Fold these 3 entries.
Entry 1:
Amino acid sequence: MKIAISSDHGGNNLRKEIMALLDELGFSYEDFGPQDDSSVDYPDYAKPVSEGVASGNFDKGILICGTGIGMSIAANKVKGIRCALVHDVFSAKATRCHNDSNIIAMGERVIGPGLAREIVATWLQTDFEGGRHERRIEKITALEEQK
Ligand code: RB5
């Protein structure tokens, strides 16, 4: 599995923590920055991860900002992206089982690194259930075509 990850300045510390987790778990990933702590605009960092996942270059994406909200809004503007804003382990599992989310967003100012690690590990290791949920994903995709 190939993973793309990025943050804004508000998510730099948690992004480093999550990259350490990915190393520990043996997942390969590409880091889309930022490379220093200067203030940046989160859509600029959501874009390469979201487009990378939507194009199939990456299987999953991880986006982190202060709240996770800006990143999730930006990511969900990209066709084919189902980005879930998650701050608990139950939702991490449910959004893979039911929504087949392909990007997870989290807020460094919302949760601590221990919980964030559990969330990401759960999210990466949970499969989509398919079945009735497949029909619902198809209806989400149909909404994208309405524009
Ligand atoms: C940056 O200050 C902050 O607005 C950003 O990290 C994020 O929380 C936006 O949704």
Entry 2:
Amino acid sequence: MEKYKNLQIGILALQGDYECHKKQLNLLGVKNSYVKLPEHLKKIDGLIIPGGESTAIIKLIDRFDLRDAIVKFSQTKPIWGTCAGMILLSKEIEDNQAEVQPLQLLDIDIARTAYGRQVFSFETQLILDLNGSQTECPATFIRAPRIKRVGEKVKILASYNDDAVLVEKDNIMASSFHTELENNTKLLEYFLDNFLVDKVNI
Ligand code: GLN
């Protein structure tokens, strides 16, 4: 799409479903690249942290010296974390037996895998509150994290059974569900339009 022509989006590609995000970006004709090392952050305008296994992803973030680099990146550029990506952006993880040290870039607390195990994965239609209009969007919950606390200044864009499942604050967006498994690019477009297009094209 013409409005995305100046964008270059990075996808953290250490573990998880990063290929699905690549497919969605390709559907919209958005240039994208995988981020595996700190220097890969230099050429991108925004970062997607995919779903997967947060314990594995955080270990690899630290092994490849990406922690400080991602925190620094977030000070000027947007990040969208989905599922495990949301866990990594959170402030605190409840009952954190695996001792995952999150990046603490978003003022929310999380309970991991709180919608049940893999066999209890489910698909649903969510109503997203995007730019003041209500938009229906298919969403898949796979061993999804539950948001247990939403910081005062964090905006809730969608809920499921009274729990926030899509939130944003400043240049950080996080969703507990997946939308990248389908061809519906609504949420990706929201991220690109609201967090990037205006800023990069100026
Ligand atoms: N439950 C997983 C974790 O804690 C996240 C699942 C997902 O990303 N689909 O890392």
Entry 3:
Amino acid sequence: MARPLPDILRIDWTTGAEPSAAVLAAVDRAAAVLREGGLVAVPTETVYGLAANALDPDAVAGIFRAKKRPTGNPLIVHVADEPQARRLAAAWPPAAATLAAAIWPGPVSLVVPKAAAVPDIVTAGGPTVAVRCPAHPVARLLIERAGIPLAAPSANRSEGVSPTTAQHVLTSLGNRIDLILDAGSCDRGIESTVIDCTVTPPRILRPGPLARSAVEAALGGPVAWPEQGGGDRPVIERSPGQGRRHYAPTTPLELPNDPAGRVAELLAAGKRVGWLVLTTLEAARGLAASRELVAVPMPTEPEAYARQLYASLHALDQRQLDRIIVDSPPAEAGWAAVRDRLERSGSPG
Ligand code: AMP
Ligand code: MG
């Protein structure tokens, strides 16, 4: 029997203000669904997460089913504060203490040894757990009112583009989940920086909104970078965001060396093309007359680019295009997270 579509509860809440009775009522309804073992999509400052009670293995199994996520991919557990994170950890390494104090609440997940209380399904059977204290007021209020830690990967079908709006969640997961809290667009727009605190020096497993330089400044020392194996295969497979193909739109995506030339070639072959334009504005203008081309000018700052990236990919994916062409972002450190996501979006299955 088909399940109904999830209720979407709109949250109107100005940052800094006390939550209204309506906001509390919506969040409390979501908290009740979570305590009963259900699935709730929740806005965070990175992307929308699909939350379940992290201490209930059956509820967490629901996340894997809804996303069609391979069970080998561990989940990030979201907490209200550092003490709650420590209760999920068998040990709290000094790097975790330093980073949590400096950066939380914020877009950083810390990998630490897991406590027995954390079900194996959350960590994909592994000995470590990733924990994050989000900064988004709705996510924070939800964790507090539910009174439980929330396992929450991105609220999309596995391998797809992460959602940055409630509509993206609805399109991707629809009737597979119970409830969506809609607080508008996510501020950061890409998934958290993941840092392994079980090794010395700590290692960034997935680049994200908090740049390597900011992590090093917070730590007062160096961090290691994702290890590359042969070719483009990461050595550490236990971090699911490191799967070679991830964050990918349905439409094939390319990062060619000569985007303008490639677009012209595709158009000449009668293809319909989407183009995320960063450095080739003049060339894009020249080709813009073509009805078969959808050119999207992208912001030239990495933070603004990240905020808009997934929404642009979702929008292009709706348009039955043959190909999405992306101008390569600069090779500078500040663009590392955006480059990481684009390279994975473009990898062949
Ligand atoms: P997402 O579906 O984007 O929320 O992906 C979850 C992310 O959690 C992955 O990209 C991993 O980098 C990270 N992660 C979760 N648990 C662990 C863990 N125990 N060790 C390493 N990375 C983890
Ligand atoms: Mg994801």
